[in-house]
């Protein structure tokens, strides 16, 4: 098995270490700044570098096919990519040019098959393959292993891209903390059913308010499945075993009961605060600070205090001023 | 809806046809619940062009109920319906449970007869059942328009209803008859000025959880096999809030829920989920639902006032049916609405078809609707049980009798040796006294009960 | 010259399937099936592009007969024609079979399409691989997982999500394949007369069913459980130290605190004090 790790300007994609670990330490690092990126890839023991420039899935796929027929001919596959945005895009094109089956969205990959998460990660399908294949591994599926002190055996490969047409990259924009991948957020405010079913504002409005408070605290917003299923937050906000696996320093849970499937994706935050009406729910039990109170009311109060004053409070002030003058 | 009125629109409607933003039908049925689909089915069968307008993405998408459909009325609408309807289990066992937080007294009835055609009641998922019935109407020729919300009524020169406005662009639908099947707190009946005031007092909130359990586990715990199912109704499990509970078996899940008086629920400041949680912990219920994984939580209003709170059912160009007409029969040991909805919808469809064929869709022309209702179970049952809701949701039945009966039975069955067994009458008096029930009221309620349910 | 064609590839899928939490068995039904939010966005973008380019929007799907409902939705919303290729779902399809069927439809009925719009991921497979296969088969450039899509001077400018919260802006001159996330636009409301007309519109059906893959097979299905995690071996001088490191015993930690504030005001005081104490707020 060999990992295919697409990098941009020396930055490894999300899930690169897990993918290289799953592939037994063998990795083809392709893109721009491959040497820098490869030096970071602690879980790889055998590395090939293909300095291929800007991301171009069409040309890269046929370029990799050329490598597969040449210097990498000894590698039999499976070809494993992280299911990061770039890996996910490159995989079907690679499967197409190599004419191999694609086992996309795997939580586990072996030389002879994979376990694939389907139906929004509610179901796992076990697939056996009779020959080589291309697969993508969902980040957060496994623990990476490796030793950053150990130097990997590295080979630079000559790179001949294919002749396919690719989109033209205009620019790459830096992260916006509000939409930063939850998985990498150092501070997260979590929305649970208790926040969205409680007092007004409820549902999507409560999430908008949480978003406001989060931006004042330089935090990201996460949610439980109950909340994302109800459509109050998008699925990339779902924390848990079937959502994003996170590892923040600070987690503040608003109306989250702390079901195993949720906690399973929470990592090991240094500080946990649980705001819940139920003093004995698992979330509060594992918290450093448990606040037994109505989550929505607390949220409203926080929004008022942390600057981004809601409109009604402005109105109240205006009314008060009017009263004072009139 | 004055802005929709006016002669210009009314006269132009016949000529404009499907162009110019106005679409014309013979009848518009609003709401593809059981009532609406039955109405549309009858109209389409009679050869009329009928639009069935539903706000959900499919019929039954958001419809909530406990889980039992009583089939008799379907015999007339869809012969041999049991061959095709999406049924989970056939109810062959029915229980009524009187409970206190620690006690319960159950009347348990079962019969093989209900497990054979023509069957009595079936548990079914509303998403499947409503879609099936609406599919029947579609097959008969009705035009089903989903994801479309009716937002207003169109009126003609004399104030008669001549169609509806929907939330879609170019969304007016004109028709000589509109049938309001839009469920509890009917927006249409209100717009048409047919609703009496004070509906909230007669509205209860139904909340329900669906718990997944393996099919074999359900068979074992409820002592049924094959497609047999159980229907349990409960009184005394709602923390003093007027209402009751229910527990029904589906194929591989159970539905558990409570029905709660809105006003008192508001006053009590308790969340309905907590009451369901209580119920799931009750010693008589816990062993039945243990280990069930919650797959669905839903809530919906129920019109419970019965006969005396129904709106006007007929007006010029409009008929009101089902929950929209408060035809849900929710008198304690009965929780029936779907059958009344189907019945009233069916008769409304027939009456509308008859009126269309004579060309008189005024209230007088549509009067056949109310006549059919009075001649059949739809209004007959309601009239008979008119006083039941009041009695059933009253303080004594809700709060005192369950406890009294349970204590009475505890007294009867408890072995008191070496003391001699107390007499029944003494036990009854003791238990009644403990729960603040005066014998006079007990007798009065017994008579009222006999009258109400007789 | 014929007007430009913008294709919307729409997948008919159950939006709220019942998944047995114990066995992972999935029960799907026709009534609950339709378009995901992502596919609705794809259709809306296709309609907008058709307007901007003065072209036609053509809807295509690969699926069973019941999948026609999504084509009727597209027609009601403004698509000028709609085609379906027969395709029975297979858990083994990696998106390649769907893409093969769709590419066949596109070649047969859409000439040289200017753009092919897809949803970012489906509700069942959910891998977003189909659009990639489709681009490869049609030999077109791709922009997948697009959040913003604008028509700007003869080309599409797309912003897509990268990892780590970064975004990428791409220019896509026609022809190209684009998959969009369910964000920023909503599918327009179809006018009522159009909905009625679409209920009875003729739909095109062509193509033969692609063969099922033979190099892979399903050996089982179960409810999702995360993989067991391997905890890295603890570091420490001796077994005792390693044990302490593994269990976290003796690590200094503030005792957890439970508070019952009187009101929201007091609760906010508690929370903000905690955040200040630990340096999250200054
Ligand atoms: C296979 C599988 C996978 C799953 N994967 C995930 C996953 O990845 N992520 C995930 O999150 N879940 C997942 N779940 C669902 C999980 O089991 C729980 O159902 C879910 O996490 C519960 O979400 P919750 O805490 O928001 O809701 P609930 O469990 O309903 O809890 C709500 C909490 O809010 C409190 N509360 C109520 N009102 C208020 C108020 N006014 N103020 C303050 N507190 C209040 C309540 O006391 C309660 O503790 C999965 C389930 C299954 C079966
Ligand atoms: C918790 C609970 C348990 C119950 N248990 C049972 C039971 O076990 N057995 C039983 O027989 N009955 C039961 N009932 C009662 C039963 O659900 C109702 O009586 C029945 O659904 C009434 O049918 P209907 O067609 O009149 O209205 P509904 O089923 O409410 O249908 C109304 C339809 O109209 C649509 N609609 C509403 N407004 C508009 C609009 N403006 N534009 C377009 N469409 C609109 C709605 O989307 C809906 O599809 C229960 C009810 C509840 C809440
Ligand atoms: N059978 C299909 N018919 C039409 N479009 C499809 C089909 N399968 C996938 N697609 C498109 O490809 C997108 C991504 O799907 P998937 O690759 O299954 O995650 C969907 O949002 C659709 O736009």
From TrEMBL, chain A:
Transmembrane segments: none annotated. InterPro entries: DHS-like_NAD/FAD-binding_dom, ETF_a/b_N, ETF_a/FixB, ETF_asu_C, Rossmann-like_a/b/a_fold. Residues 307-326 are annotated as: Disordered. SUPFAM superfamilies: Adenine nucleotide alpha hydrolases-like, DHS-like NAD/FAD-binding domain. Residues 27-158 form the Electron transfer flavoprotein alpha/beta-subunit N-terminal domain. Its cofactor is FAD. Residues 316-326 have a biased composition (Basic and acidic residues). It comes from the Bacteria. NCBIfam families: mft_etfA (NF038209). Belongs to the ETF alpha-subunit/FixB family. This is Electron transfer flavoprotein subunit alpha.
UniProtKB/TrEMBL annotation, chain B:
GO terms for molecular function: FAD binding; oxidoreductase activity. The keyword Ligase does not apply. The keyword Oxidoreductase applies. Pfam families: ETF-QO_FixC_C, FAD_binding_3. InterPro entries: FAD-bd, FAD/NAD-bd_sf, FixC-like, FixC-like_C. Keywords: FAD, Flavoprotein, Oxidoreductase. Residues 26-210 form the FAD-binding domain. Residues 391-452 form the FixC-like C-terminal domain. Its cofactor is FAD. SUPFAM superfamilies: FAD-linked reductases, C-terminal domain, FAD/NAD(P)-binding domain. Transmembrane segments: none annotated. Belongs to the ETF-QO/FixC family. This is Electron transfer flavoprotein. It comes from Amycolatopsis antarctica.
């Amino acid at each position: 098995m060999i990992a295919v790790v697409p990098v941009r300007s020396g930055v490894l994609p999300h899930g690169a270490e897990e993918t290289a670990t799953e592939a037994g330490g063998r990795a083809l690092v392709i893109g721009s700044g491959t040497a820098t990126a490869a030096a970071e890839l602690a879980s790889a023991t055998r590395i090939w570098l293909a300095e291929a420039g800007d991301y171009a899935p069409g040309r890269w796929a046929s370029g990799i096919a050329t490598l597969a027929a040449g210097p990498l001919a000894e590698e039999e596959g499976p070809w494993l990519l992280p299911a990061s945005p770039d890996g996910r895009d490159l995989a079907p094109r690679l499967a197409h040019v190599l004419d191999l089956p694609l086992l996309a969205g795997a939580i586990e990959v072996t030389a002879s098959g994979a376990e694939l998460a389907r139906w929004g990660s509610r179901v796992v399908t076990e697939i056996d393959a009779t020959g080589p294949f291309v697969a993508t591994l969902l980040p957060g599926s496994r623990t990476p292993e490796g030793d950053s002190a150990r130097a990997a055996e590295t080979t630079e490969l000559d790179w001949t891209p294919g002749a396919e047409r690719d989109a033209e990259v205009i620019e790459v924009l830096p992260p916006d903390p509000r939409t930063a991948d939850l998985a990498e957020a150092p501070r997260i405010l979590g929305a649970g059913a208790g926040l969205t079913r409680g007092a007004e504002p409820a549902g999507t409005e409560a999430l908008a308010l949480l978003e406001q408070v989060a931006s004042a605290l330089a935090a990201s917003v996460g949610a439980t499945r109950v909340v994302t299923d109800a459509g109050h937050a998008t699925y990339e906000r779902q924390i848990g075993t079937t959502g994003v696996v996170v590892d923040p320093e600070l987690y503040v849970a608003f109306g989250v009961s702390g079901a195993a499937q949720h906690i399973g994706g929470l990592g090991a935050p240094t500080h946990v605060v649980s705001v819940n009406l139920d003093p004995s729910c698992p979330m509060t039990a594992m918290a450093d600070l448990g606040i037994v109170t109505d989550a929505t009311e607390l949220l409203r109060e926080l929004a008022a205090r942390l600057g981004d004053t809601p409109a009604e409070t402005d109105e109240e002030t205006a009314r008060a001023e009017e009263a004072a003058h009139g | 809806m004055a802005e929709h009125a006016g002669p210009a629109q009314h006269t132009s409607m016949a000529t404009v046809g499907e162009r110019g933003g106005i679409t014309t039908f013979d009848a518009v049925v609003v709401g593809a619940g059981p009532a609406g689909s039955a109405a549309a089915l009858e109209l389409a069968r009679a050869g009329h062009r009928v639009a069935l307008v539903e706000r959900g993405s499919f019929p039954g998408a958001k419809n909530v109920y406990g889980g039992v459909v009583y089939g008799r009325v379907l015999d007339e609408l869809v012969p041999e319906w049991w061959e095709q309807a999406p049924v989970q289990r056939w109810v062959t066992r029915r229980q009524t449970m009187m409970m206190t937080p620690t006690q319960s007294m159950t009347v348990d009835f079962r019969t093989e007869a209900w497990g054979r055609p023509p069957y009595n009641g079936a548990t079914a998922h509303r998403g499947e059942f409503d879609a099936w019935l609406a599919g029947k109407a579609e097959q008969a020729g009705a035009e089903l328009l989903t994801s479309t919300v009716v937002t207003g009524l169109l009126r003609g020169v004399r104030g008669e209803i001549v169609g509806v406005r929907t939330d879609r662009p170019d969304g007016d639908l004109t028709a000589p008859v509109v049938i309001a099947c839009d469920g509890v707190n009917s927006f249409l009946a209100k717009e048409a000025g047919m609703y009496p005031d004070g509906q909230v007092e007669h509205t209860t909130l139904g909340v329900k959880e669906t718990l997944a359990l393996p099919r074999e586990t359900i068979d074992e715990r409820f002592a049924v096999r094959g497609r047999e199912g159980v229907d349990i109704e409960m009184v005394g499990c709602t923390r003093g809030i007027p209402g009751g509970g229910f527990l029904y078996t589906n194929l591989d899940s159970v539905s558990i829920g409570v029905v709660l008086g809105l006003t008192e629920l508001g006053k009590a400041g308790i969340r309905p989920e907590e009451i369901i949680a209580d119920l799931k912990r009750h010693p008589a219920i816990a062993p039945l639902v243990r280990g069930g994984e919650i797959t669905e939580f839903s809530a919906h209003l129920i019109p419970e006032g019965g006969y005396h709170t129904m709106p006007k059912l007929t007006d010029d160009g409009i008929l009101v049916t089902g929950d929209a007409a408060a035809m849900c029969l929710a008198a304690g040991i009965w929780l029936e609405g779907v059958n009344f909805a189907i019945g009233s919808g069916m008769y409304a469809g027939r009456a509308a078809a008859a009126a269309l064929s004579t060309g008189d869709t005024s209230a007088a022309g549509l009067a056949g609707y109310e006549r059919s209702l009075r001649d059949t179970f739809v209004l007959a049952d309601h009239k008979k049980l008119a006083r039941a809701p009041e009695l059933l949701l009253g303080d004594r039945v809700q709060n005192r009798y369950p406890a009294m009966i349970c204590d009475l039975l505890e007294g009867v069955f408890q072995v008191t040796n070496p003391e001699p067994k107390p007499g029944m009458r003494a036990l009854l008096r003791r238990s009644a006294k403990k729960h603040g029930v005066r014998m006079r009221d007990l007798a009065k309620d017994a008579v009222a009960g006999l009258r109400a349910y007789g | 010259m014929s007007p430009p064609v913008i294709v919307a590839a729409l997948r008919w899928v159950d939006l709220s399937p019942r998944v047995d939490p114990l066995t992972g068995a999935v029960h799907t039904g026709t009534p609950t099936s339709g378009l995901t939010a992502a596919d609705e966005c794809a259709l809306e973008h296709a309609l907008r592009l058709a307007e901007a380019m003065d072209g036609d929007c053509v809807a295509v799907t690969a699926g069973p007969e019941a999948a026609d409902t999504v084509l009727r939705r597209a027609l009601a919303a403004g698509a000028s024609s709609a085609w379906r290729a027969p395709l029975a779902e297979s858990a083994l399809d990696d998106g390649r079979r769907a893409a093969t069927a769709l590419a066949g439809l596109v070649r047969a009925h859409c000439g040289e399409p200017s753009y092919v719009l897809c949803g970012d991921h489906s509700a069942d497979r959910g891998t977003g691989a189909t659009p990639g296969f489709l681009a490869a088969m049609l030999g077109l450039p791709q922009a997948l997982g697009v959040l913003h899509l604008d028509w700007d001077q003869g080309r599409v400018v797309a912003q897509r999500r990268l990892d780590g919260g970064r975004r990428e802006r791409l220019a896509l001159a026609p022809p190209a394949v684009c998959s969009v996330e369910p964000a920023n636009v909503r599918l327009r409301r179809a006018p009522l007369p159009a909905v009625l007309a679409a209920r009875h519109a003729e739909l095109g059906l062509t193509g033969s069913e692609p063969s099922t893959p033979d190099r892979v097979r399903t050996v089982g299905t179960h409810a999702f459980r995360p993989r067991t995690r391997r905890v890295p071996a603890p570091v420490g001088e001796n077994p005792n130290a390693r044990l302490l490191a593994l269990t976290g015993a003796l690590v200094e930690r503030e005792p957890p605190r439970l508070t019952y504030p009187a009101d929201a005001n007091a609760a906010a005081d508690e929370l903000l004090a905690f955040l200040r104490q630990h340096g999250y707020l200054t």
